[in-house]
Amino acid sequence: MSLHENKQKEPLLSVQHVKKYFSVTGQWGRLGGVKGQVKAVNDVSFRLVEGETYGLVGESGSGKSTTGRAILRLTEPTDGEVFYQNENIFQVPKRKLQRFRKDVQMVFQDPFSSLNPRKRIGKTIEEPLHIHRVGNQKERRERVLDILDKVGMGPEHYYRFPHEFSGGQRQRLGLARALVMEPKVVICDEPVSALDVSIQSQVVNLLKQLQTEMDLAYLFITHDISVVRHISDRIGVMYLGEIVEEAPTDDLFSSPLHPYTQALFSAVPRTKNERNRERIVLKGEIPSPLNPPTGCKFHTRCPFAMDICKREVPKRKKIEPDHFVTCHLYE
Length: 331
What we know:
The chain is an alpha/beta fold. It contains eleven helices and twelve strands. It has an eight-stranded mixed β-sheet with strand order 6-7-8-3-9-10-12-11, with helices on both faces. Strand 11 (about 315-320) and strand 12 (about 325) form a beta hairpin. It is globular, with a radius of gyration of 21 Å.
């Protein structure tokens, strides 16, 4: 999808200032009192349009998966808004979320733990159709067989159990279960991180093929820079619960602005044309979200940190029409 086409479309999913805080209690649980808060997701905003892939990338613990779960209300958000078809999903009572859950599905990181080991695959994939009362028994079975075919599986797999499949096959089945409801948005939470490299490319290519065939929009959550570059139209870079840079994929890779983004991209294996690219090694470990640094959260590891970085929280700035960065270097 071109950048011009992206601008012309209304957002299918609009995420605005979403926050998710977890209370930390004492040794005796709630009786010991609340000791602090972990700000797992802190004021995250982005938009997703029809047919687009938005990549959310960052280190483990940056809040990517929690963001995906908060959007679906698998974990209740602390604050913010998520608009789907002009309706604020965070204000919809849980009992009325059924239509939203039909249109917005999730593919989980570990396909084995997300599949019921006691159920045959056909019945597992068919279960959402029962819940949403779609078709009769024959129509549901035909729909399951059709979606199995689309993800590269055969009718002989309908009666097998999850333990009879390889990791790559189980991830295809997890994708089939998400797509059987014909959703408009799929949140992919690290869908290839547990797979071998050769299988990763197969699953990513399958995702792109299905996106074209079914006109899907993806929120693709990953820590793998090379994968997110291959599949995404736009990318948001997360650090300690916040998006520190956002841009179209080509712009972000050709001109990363935030020091954290530059460090992430420098760790990607180099091609023949990139031998002179400098490797940026960050000092220290990612700070604890229970006790984050003051000012800019990245200043403790940033090679360009200034005094103002320790004191003041940087504001989001537009550098180019669709390129945003949150950093004092660009004031």
